Amino acid sequence: MLFDNSYTQLPQRFYTRLRPSPVSAPGLIRVNRELARHLGIDPEWLESSEGVEVIAGNRIPEGADPIATVYAGYQFGGWVPQLGDGRAILLGEMIGSDGLRYDIQLKGSGRTPYSRNGDGRAPLGPVLREYMVSEAMAALDIPSSRALAAVTSGESVLREEVQPGGVLVRVAQSHIRIGTFQFFAARQDVDALRLLADHVIQRHYPDSSQADNPYLTLLQQVIARQAQLIASWQLVGFIHGVMNTDNMLLSGETIDYGPCAFMDAFEPAAVFSYIDRNGRYAYQNQPAIAHWNLAGLAEALLPLLSGDHSSAVALAQESIDAFPELFEQAYLLGMRRKLGISSCAPADATLIQELLSLMAQEATDFTLTFRRLAELAGGKEEVKSNVSELFQLPASFDPWLKRWYQRLAEEPQDSEQRQAEMLASNPLFIPRNHLVEEAIAAAVSQQNFGPFHTLVEVLADPYTYRPRLKHFAAPPRPDQRVRFTFCGT
Ligand code: AMP
Ligand code: MG
After folding, report:
1. Which amino acid residue places its CA nearest to atom 11 of ligand 1?
2. Tens of pLDDT along 224-242?
3. 123 phi and psi, to 5 degrees?
4. What pTM, to 2 d.p., does this model score?
């Protein structure tokens, strides 16, 4: 492993140097071979006993400089002045074949100074969930942390019940959070804020270093990236579940797959985390929560935006006020693409709104509604798949379909090209909660990792219909419905 560490160049108050705590009997679950190759890691080595020791945190590879980073955050709206990697260790950074820098982080690697009352460990179930869902997000082209590898630890972890333990190797362009900035802002440590902002600019937004006001441009670019990210969640029915400011990355990647879920039936108020009793992080609230979190970032950056406080506030406010429009643009563009609309008509927003109202009213399956529309959009209805065997649009959609067909008739594209594009932007295979739960249950209670491996492989290609995999596209039966996805990570 060829490390090239930059975060450890920052001052000591950004992190604590320490080694992962070894586990008793690591056992390989899976290596993400493609991602390993992308990072210049030999997948066969990573699967070897030496590689497994590295994944488990029992062996420190040469060049690694392990640390736990410090951050703060607003959790469910409440300020927590110090959080930090309580069960994660950043081994170091590597440069990918795309020239980008990636963090290599172990999750579940033991206690750190930031563990508070936690045990520093990860139960197997959440490790597998994060592996499956984060890789599914990446396959959907949604910026996300990735799963490089997972092992069982051979140890027990106590949550609501005793579970086998695991360690996940997480890869992200960085793990710098809004909460990292908030940590230093709360301490009025302007030097640290500046060093951190310079680090983020160099790493994620190098263009902004050329701007008149690099820190303002940084803020604007982070806001724009988050608007894109949240739009991409809304477009696939993804609910993050715990959008605290310590779970939003400056890189614009999705992170923290604790209580997340993909919706089956469309329900704007859907919540899957049982600790989210007020529905703060419900599907329909995600854009507003991102906006609020970004206001927190803007506030933390105030001392860097201008020497004069009131002009700093004005600059921050203007940047933040741009978020709803940026989100709306990204969302509308994505929705048009999902509906096979390549041009722009003023009435499109209404057409989209009417569809969503119908979907909510009839509680149709989010994913299959769009996939079905993709089939109906073509000259030949059954060309690519057979969603109709799994799902039919209710008759109440007929008047809407008529308006949609009229709209499509104004389009320059021919219907076959339109259908191909719609099939490529409306996934068929998503990590459905009941499938994720089944895969976890088989692994945890029967040590059977077959369903986990199968699901990872199915989800790696979310758009291509494969007849023998049809049941992976089906919505849950009533008895398979999962109401909560969060049970002690
Ligand atoms: P999360 O809810 O996963 O975003 O975690 C919130 C904070 O709690 C982070 O600072 C984590 O490092 C910490 N944390 C969560 N679980 C544990 C654990 N089992 N042991 C130690 N710290 C934890
Ligand atoms: Mg977190």
Report:
1. 86
2. 999 999 999 999 999 999 9
3. -70, 155
4. 0.98
